[in-house]
Design a protein that fits this description.
The complex is a heterodimer of chains A (219) and B (285). Chain A has 219 residues and is an alpha+beta fold. Chain A has two domains: 132 residues, 60s Ribosomal Protein L30, Chain: A; 72 residues, Alpha-Beta Plaits, CATH 3.30.70.260. In chain A, helix 1 runs parallel beside helix 3. Chain B has a single domain, classed as 2-methylcitrate dehydratase PrpD, CATH 1.10.4100. In chain B, 64% of the residues lie in helices and 1% in strands. Chain B has 13 helices and one strand; from the N terminus they run αααααβαααααααα. In chain B, helix 5 packs antiparallel against helix 11, helix 6 packs antiparallel against helix 7 and helix 9 packs across helix 11. Chain B is globular, with a radius of gyration of 18 Å. The relative contact order of chain B is 0.14. The chains are: A alpha+beta (219), B mainly alpha (285). Chains A and B meet through strand 1, helix 1 and helix 2 of A and helix 2, helix 3, helix 5, strand 1 and helix 7 of B. Strand 1 of chain A pairs antiparallel with strand 1 of chain B.
């Protein structure tokens, strides 16, 4: 807890959950995509679906996809900015099972063809929780430095990853691991106390079975 | 941070004052340097000031079109001496409304403690600065006092309308502003926490009933009203009237009332003002 959770955050209104949280979800999707998005399909569930226009949730999430922070005054004009940049944006309603009332699914395609599909909830006060990434269960907040590693399920991958972090003297704050089926697609979301260098993410990418490594800065 | 207690906060402030006690707690909690923390609060103050200026734009309007441009109207009435509540109160209410309307129009604001209640602290503090010729450093320190009080309420009860109704949002903001006002007017730490309790007591039970589920009606007007409530609470305490109940118990009572509220009156847009036939008749977007 910090006093700046009470006097703060500095943000674009009107709602910390429906605007600031939505912008953060968009920005996490942008970081995971790792390149400029050219196309996005955003599906709103629950309260998001009912009130997204009035709360500017649509503008906020697109602003986030354009890498704007929560206090960026361009958020209000993001739909226009996206259009001018040639980004195609579609909004649609969705009904998800067992999802928080403020949940959205962001599907984005980058300029070099990279794709990302993210399901995340805005859980209050601008805080978010990323629930699924490309169909794999997740569970991180975006508050901390987060390593997202997608890999094949095989013995020893988790041990090797944590060994590399340990050798670099980086403490793991939280770590979650998921897989679809035994031997199938798997993922790790690791929240770190310190920022790893470029060399370290490159080393992680070299590990056998590792498909993709993304380092998210706190959003 | 303050043992989740206003009584403890008063004790911790002995010898150093409330603002310094709050600053030291933040330094301990986050490991940040004094200068860094001061700068951060000064930034918050600057954004508050900018949002108040922006909110007076007569052409400002929200995405839904339900709010915007009314703060300018209230300020004009104050300037033309057409108010019933006087100049000082009128200016504070107009400023609070301006910031809240700026928020509804997707402007930049400081959540204090939430976006929905963001007008109350700037409305009260910036107007007190004008009235009493206070420095920016004094206002910054008053924000630390407000934050400390808000932190105790957040830890002990809730500052979310979905959990505790509007009393938890505008009520907390008014309580924070009242404590800060007492500090600025030279009251004691005990008087600051008494003012906080008076503000919460006087607004207790206020429900969260946003029309169409948007942070607009009645939210922006409750920011104006919350600012006025902060002055009354501060004046009661500054006059030396002791709060008849311990401030911590008043916070607990606010929490309890929030828990008793039906879901329809906790930010679902189903009860209260949101259930007015005319509000229901409006197109849901």
């Amino acid at each position: 807890m910090s006093l700046f959770d009470i006097i703060g955050p500095v943000m674009i209104g009107p709602s910390s959950s429906h605007t600031a949280g939505a912008a953060r979800i968009g920005r996490v999707a942008r970081q995971l995509l790792g390149e400029k998005p050219v196309k996005a399909v955003i599906s709103f569930h629950g309260s998001f679906e009912k009130t997204y226009r009035g709360h500017g949730t649509d503008r906020a999430v697109v602003g986030g996809l354009l890498d704007m922070p929560v206090d960026d005054e361009r958020l209000r004009r993001s739909l226009k900015i996206a259009k001018e940049a040639g980004m195609e944006v579609t909004f649609r309603p969705v009904r998800l099972r067992d999802a928080h009332p403020n949940t959205m699914v962001v599907e984005a395609v980058g300029e070099h063809g990279k794709r990302v599909r993210l399901q995340a909830a805005s859980i209050g006060g601008g805080r978010i929780r990323v629930q699924y990434l490309d169909g794999l269960e997740m569970g991180f907040s975006g508050d901390k430095i987060t390593l997202v590693i997608r890999h094949g399920d095989a013995p020893g991958v988790i041990a090797k990853v944590s060994q590399i972090l340990a050798d670099a003297g980086i403490n793991i704050a939280t770590m979650r691991v998921f897989r679809t089926t035994a031997g199938g697609a798997a993922a790790m979301a690791i929240e770190l106390d310190a920022l790893p260098g470029d060399g370290l993410t490159a080393e992680l990418r070299q590990l056998p079975g590792v498909r993709d490594v993304t380092l998210l800065s706190p959003i | 941070m303050f043992e989740n207690s206003l009584e403890a906060l008063v004790r911790l402030s002995e010898g150093v004052g409330l603002a310094e006690a709050a600053r030291q707690a933040e330094m301990r909690e986050t490991g940040a340097a004094r200068e860094e923390i001061n700068k951060k609060m000064e930034t918050a103050l600057r954004v508050m000031r900018q949002s108040a200026e922006k909110g007076f734009d007569p052409k400002l309007h929200s995405m839904s079109g339900m709010t915007g441009g009314q703060a300018c109207r209230l300020r004009q009435a104050v300037e033309e001496n057409r108010t019933a509540g006087g100049n000082y109160l009128g200016r504070a209410a107009a400023r609070a409304l301006a910031v809240a309307e700026c928020n509804a129009a997707m402007g930049k604001i400081v959540a204090a403690p939430t976006a929905g209640a963001c007008g109350i602290l700037p409305g009260v503090l910036l107007t007190a600065q004008e009235e009493f010729g206070l420095s920016d450093d004094q206002l910054r320190d008053a924000l630390f006092v407000a934050a400390a009080v808000g932190d105790v309420i957040a830890a002990r009860a809730s500052i979310s309308g979905a959990e505790g109704g509007c009393q938890a949002e505008c009520g907390t903001a008014a309580a924070m502003a009242a404590a800060a006002l007492v500090y600025l007017r030279g009251g004691t730490a005990k008087q600051s926490t008494d003012a906080c309790a008076f503000a919460l007591m006087n607004i207790m039970g206020l429900v969260c009933d946003p029309v169409r589920g948007l942070v607009e009606v009645p939210c922006v007007y409750r920011n104006a009203s919350g600012a006025a409530g902060a002055f009354v609470a501060a004046d009661l305490a500054l006059a030396g009237i002791p709060c008849p109940l311990p401030p911590d118990e008043v916070i607990d009572a606010m929490k309890n009332v929030g828990e008793l509220m039906p879901a329809s009156l906790r930010e679902t847009g189903e009860g209260g003002c949101a259930a007015c036939p005319s509000a229901c008749g409006k197109k849901v977007d």
